[in-house]
Design brief:
The complex is a heterodimer. By secondary structure, chain A is an alpha/beta fold. Chain A has 9 helices and 12 strands. Chain B contains 12 helices and 24 strands. The chains are: A alpha/beta, B alpha/beta.
Chain lengths: 254, 483
């Protein structure tokens, strides 16, 4: 589904990703871990099409297409979803209105009629339940005055509404209490099918207690330096990242 | 698709075409160019006016000659040659149209094209329309329905004939001809407009609306609206305007006067969409308008709501004189400027009575190379004890070539008044746009969404029929200013 080859990315001439490779197939859940400042969020942004980053080398192929040629809104309509680490506020625009616009843009792209108001509200009610979202939240302006937990739940709610093929969750778990974490994880688990895939960026192993990943990758200095199963996350939790750094140094000196 | 350059984006949102710029081919009955006492006598005679009105006009004209065009506003334009303007132009044939069968079908078609149906059975239920083309009122709908309740809603000319006593009593009572340069000019040459009287205790059951259309070339439009709400009455009034696209600038200098007596309420809504000129700033309407309401009776209320997207230059400050105790004045405004448009607009609230209250919510949106200024005055008199004002002026900038300015003036003459002023300036951020795009919403729709969200507080105040139109208009006038 997604194939990233030798991806090199910089911002203001500062290299962030430095030859990253990643293969994601339908039905898989990939966790990406790693110390701060190694390029995890950059990777998520580049896949979603944020233009402040410059791709200097390498390729990203999504469902056989060159993703780098596609505008961000088209990537979204093609099924790529990014759950933001810091969702932005849009004053005066209600979540209902925002999502109605988004859902209907997606439908138009697929050649479908827009949903009627009642169809849309029914869909929204169904998805709200899925992520245990407070019913009144959707009347409020997008992210305005939301608590950290509300913002993240709102991201998962939007993901549920748009039913993406590839969802990237950028530190969706940070700042969440245990209950919110469980709700977010449940939401993801309910949306998991054999046809879609998730990339979950996280600092903590605890999210992966709820969402069991197929692969755990360690991103370090702009590259994926280690890949393993879910037990790798446990090992990282226990030992930190120093042993990986050491391993890398040893390899380099050999 | 590189969109690093937000400015480029914004340049593009300003690229859509004005959709109301067509010209109707009707013969005009016009005064010769220029302005002299003879022009005024010509207009007055054309309309068969009583002596007192001609006097009023001539006094205004003589006063106007002693005045200088104001230069304090934050706007720039070449000097206007008042001798090059045609001050009276009317679609030929019938002076006054008694019913639709007598109206030139070309005119009906024009208004049909503008989305204003003048045939009552086809109309939106609940809106009565007075249609004004160039200098005269074309027709007024729903007149009889209104007459049943004792409501008078007709063209200004008709009111002069049928209700001269009301005109004599109230004309110039809120905006005297000495008020300002453009008010004096209007008082001298005004041609037509709407008149409305709501009798005691009557709630007007439908929205009243005037639709102004400038059609003829080289013509100034000088209409005059007078609304009187008697004790315990209520009316909601809407005004819409468009003009053809012409390369030369056209002058529009109108006056609106509102009088609210004891316990009466008047809501006045405007969607102003005069031709703003082309992308290079050529052509467009100069909109120099004086709008003022007088809360004459105790517990009366006047609110102005305006969505301004048009005109090359806008110069207007809808105001309320809060004379009655416990009276309330409100001003809600969204002003959009794009390309080379200039707007210097805001409100004035004069607190004279005790316990009077006013609210000003102004939302400016600037794009392209435009300039958007808020200018407001809040004045509380010595006797206006316990009066309150709250003003909020927000500016939203699209791009880095436009300007937003705020000029608030506050004069407080008593110790128990409370006056608050808040102002913010913001931009549509790259983060917001990217967030929308990531959800599948393209830049143009995203801007429409964000701008409408920003203006929501004001749009919510508009009557239903207008709110939808205003929302679309906001999106259209910024189309292309972001790519």
């Amino acid at each position: 589904m997604l194939s990233i080859k030798n991806l090199k990315v910089s911002i203001h001439n500062k290299k962030i990703l430095n030859g990253l490779n990643l293969e994601v197939k339908a039905g898989e859940v990939h966790a990406i871990m790693g110390p701060n400042g190694t390029g995890k969020s950059t990777l998520a942004s580049v896949i979603a099409g944020r233009d402040i980053f410059e791709v200097t080398e390498g390729s990203i192929t999504y469902q056989g297409k060159n993703l780098l040629d596609i505008a961000p809104e088209i990537r979204s309509r093609e099924g790529i979803f990014l759950g933001f680490q810091y969702p932005v506020e849009i004053p005066g625009v209600s979540i209902t209105n925002f999502m109605k616009t988004a859902v209907n843009e997606h439908r138009k792209y697929k050649g479908l009629e827009p949903l009627t108001a009642s169809q849309f509200l029914a869909l929204m009610e169904e998805k709200k339940k899925l992520v245990e979202l407070q019913t009144t939240l959707t009347n409020r302006s997008v992210n305005e005055g939301f608590s950290g937990g509300e913002k993240k739940k709102n991201e998962i709610f939007q993901m549920a509404m748009l039913e993406p093929t590839l969802a990237i969750l950028d530190e969706t778990d940070s700042g969440l209490d245990i209950d919110a974490l469980r709700i977010v994880a449940n939401g993801v688990n309910k949306l998991r099918t054999k046809n879609n895939a998730f990339i979950i960026i996280t600092h903590y192993q605890r999210l992966l207690d709820y969402i069991i990943p197929d692969f755990v990758h360690v991103l370090f200095e702009g590259k994926i330096v280690k890949t393993g199963g879910k037990e790798l996350a446990l090992e990282l939790e226990e030992k930190g990242y120093d042993w990986i750094k050491k391993e890398l140094e040893e390899k380099a000196s050999v | 698709m590189k969109e690093l350059d937000n400015n480029k984006i914004i340049e593009e949102v300003t690229n859509s075409e004005y959709k109301w710029g067509f010209v109707t081919n009707v013969e005009n009955d016009a005064a010769p160019k220029g302005l002299t006492e003879d022009t005024i006598r010509f207009i007055s005679a054309k309309k068969g006016e009583p002596e007192f009105l001609l006097d009023f006009r001539l006094k205004a004209y003589r006063h106007w000659l002693t005045m200088k065009e104001p230069t304090w506003a934050h706007i720039h334009y070449p000097p206007i040659d008042y001798q090059e303007i045609i001050f009276y132009s009317a679609p030929k044939k019938k002076e006054e149209n008694k019913d639709l069968n007598e109206v030139d079908p070309e005119l009906l078609k024009t208004f049909e094209k503008l989305g204003i149906s003048l045939e009552e059975q086809k109309m939106l239920t609940g809106v009565a329309v007075d249609a004004v083309m160039d200098s005269i009122s074309v027709t007024t709908t729903f007149k009889e329905t209104l007459a049943d309740k004792g409501i008078i809603f007709c063209s200004f000319s008709e009111a002069v004939r049928e209700h001269p006593d009301l005109i004599k009593k109230y004309l110039g009572s809120v905006v005297p001809y000495t008020d300002n340069y453009f008010a004096a000019l209007n008082s001298a040459v005004f041609s037509d407009g709407s008149f409305c009287y709501i009798p005691k205790g009557v709630r007007c059951p439908i929205e009243l609306s005037t639709y102004f259309r400038i059609n003829a070339a080289n013509t100034g439009q000088f209409e005059r609206t007078l609304i009187i709400a008697d004790d315990d009455s209520y009316v909601s009034y809407m005004e819409g305007c468009t003009a053809p696209m012409r390369d030369e600038n056209q002058l529009h200098a109108a006056i609106v006067e509102i009088i609210a007596l004891e316990n009466a309420e008047v809501k006045y809504s405007t969607v102003q969409n005069w031709y703003p000129g082309n992308k290079e700033g050529k052509g467009g309407i100069y909109n120099f308008v004086t709008k003022r309401g007088m809360c004459k009776g105790n517990h009366s209320k006047i609110s102005w709501t305006q969505v301004e997207t048009g005109s090359a230059i806008t110069w207007k400050y809808p105001s309320v004189v809060l004379k009655g105790d416990f009276s309330v004045g409100e001003f809600y405004s969204v002003a959009v400027t794009n390309n080379y448009q200039q707007a210097d607009t805001g409100s004035k609230m004069f607190h004279l009575g005790k316990n009077t209250k006013s609210t000003i919510i102004s939302k400016g949106i600037s794009a392209g190379k435009s300039n958007n200024s808020y200018r407001g005055l809040v004045k509380t008199g010595r006797n206006a004890s316990n009066s309150r004002n709250y003003s909020q002026c927000d500016s939203l900038l699209l791009g880095d070539k436009c300007g937003a300015h705020t000029f608030p003036y506050i004069e407080v003459s008593n110790k128990s008044s409370i006056v608050e002023h808040e102002a913010t300036t913001s931009k549509i951020s790259d983060e917001q746009l990217f967030y929308c795009k990531q959800r599948g919403i393209d830049t143009e729709s995203a801007i429409g969404l964000i701008v409408n969200g920003y203006a929501k507080e004001v749009l919510n105040k508009l009557p239903m029929e207008f709110a939808v139109e205003a929302q679309k208009l906001l999106a259209i006038s910024l189309e292309g200013s972001v790519g």
